[in-house]
Write a structure and sequence with these properties.
- By secondary structure, the protein is α/β, with parallel strands linked by helices.
- It has two domains: 168 residues, 3-Layer(bba) Sandwich (FAD/NAD(P)-binding domain), CATH 3.50.50; 149 residues, FAD/NAD(P)-binding domain (3-Layer(bba) Sandwich), CATH 3.50.50.60.
- It has eight helices and 22 strands.
- The longest helix has 19 residues.
Length: 395
């Protein structure tokens, strides 16, 4: 009997993890990966690139080196989904049919959703951002050129990649200014469009103590809506209010708004907010049982991190395999995610928790404490786990 055809949209963390696991279990499977990019990026490293610890090239690999053996690679963009016909249409005009579909194209950065901001302006007027390979070097350049004044770091409303990343670069910058004997000339401000610095109490308490000790001015419930580069002003919307607040800056690290790409948001697969509408435990689509989604573009109500994908991928694979056998999906994802919260050049809090915001810690010690060992894990251990474990379907 011929093997069912499985099409995976996206060759990022989720797409490669699932494809590798499927083919590790059955090398004869018919797996097609649709991914337009030649390059693959380990994005969690960009915080450390922005802090000057690595060149950005350390985060980049050739996509071809991680396409699993036995998979077909269609190097094209998806234009639309036709789930009623079990088909995907690509930008070049191909129609690719499937028996099972995995949707994992990642998030789209919406720079222009903030008035006055564009990707091209990052790197000028004191504006920097860790959030793309093209812009991440501007952060380290900006920190090195900073001689004092107001250093502003923003966290927008809505879902973003790794909810802790905006505060991590704030901590690194403050530590860098201190090491350069500039701290008494700096006003470091972290502005976030949420009611607390982190969503999980256990780790928020540690971060709140750290920002108080480091004299970082935390301003909450403010969403960046406009940048005025010429006057170096940032305009924030007060959440659930008509009021706005303007803060002048000498440098600003911007986290852009993010969301699903148009071809996802406008498709029959999308639900509320444009996310692919899946069961939060099985990752199976709620209307199309031969469709699964995981990673950043899914509706799974957890943080959008690579660590979450590491737990989602085996569940997705097990449930695809069950569906192929004519069984009901039985594997269950509990919302596990992790956020390595860097707090200086030698300390980190490893936050791990589930859907209920309950800790799910991996080590036999209190992970809510700042530790040098956890920083070493972030710097050296996790990249190896990613390149040699996750993407190969081994971890």
């Amino acid at each position: 009997m011929s093997k069912p055809k499985i099409v995976v949209v996206g060759g990022g963390t989720a797409g490669l993890s699932v494809s590798s696991r499927l083919l590790n279990d059955d090398p004869e499977l018919d797996v097609t990966i649709i991914e337009p990019s030649d390059k693959h990026y380990y994005q969690p490293l960009w915080t450390l690139v922005g802090g000057g610890l690595f060149p950005r090239e350390e985060s980049e690999r050739e996509e071809a080196d991680y396409i699993p053996r036995g998979a077909k690679w269609v190097k094209d963009h998806v234009e639309s989904f036709k789930p009623q016909n079990n088909a995907v249409k690509t930008r070049s005009g191909q129609t690719i049919n499937y028996d099972y579909l995995v949707v994992s194209p990642g998030l789209q950065l919406n720079w222009e959703a903030i008035k006055g901001l564009s990707k091209d302006i990052v790197g000028t007027h004191g504006i920097c951002s860790n959030y793309s390979y093209d812009t991440v070097e501007t952060t380290w350049q900006t920190l090195q050129n900073f001689q004092g004044g107001t250093a502003l770091f923003t966290h927008p409303a809505g879902a973003i990649k790794c909810g802790g990343a905006p505060v991590k670069i704030c901590f690194l910058a403050e530590d860098y200014f201190r090491k350069q004997c500039l701290r008494d000339k700096c006003n470091v401000i972290f502005v976030a469009a949420m009611p607390r610095i982190f969503a999980v109490d256990r780790y928020a308490t540690t971060l709140e103590a750290a920002v108080a000790r480091r004299d970082i001015d935390v301003q909450l419930n403010l969403d960046l809506v406009e940048i005025r580069p010429e006057t170096r002003e940032a305009v924030f919307q007060v959440m659930e209010s008509d009021e706005q607040k303007t803060i002048k800056y000498d440098m600003i690290h911007v986290t852009p708004k993010m969301g699903p790409a148009e071809f996802v948001k406008n498709s029959p697969l999308a639900g509320e907010g444009g996310w692919v509408d899946v069961d939060k435990h099985t990752t199976q689509h709620v209307r199309f049982p031969n469709v699964f989604a995981l990673g950043d573009v899914s509706s799974l109500p957890t943080s959008k991190t690579g660590a979450a994908i590491r737990k989602q991928a085996p569940v997705t694979v097990a449930n695809i395999q069950a569906t192929i056998r004519g069984q009901q999906p039985a594997a269950s994802y509990d919302g596990y995610t992790s956020c390595p919260l860097v707090t200086s050049y030698n300390s980190m809090v490893l936050a791990e928790f589930d859907y209920d915001k309950e800790p799910q810690e991996s080590f036999p010690f209190d992970q809510s404490k700042e530790r040098f060992s956890m920083f070493m894990l972030k710097k050296h251990g996790l990249p190896k786990l990613y390149w040699h474990g996750m993407l190969r379907g081994r971890a």
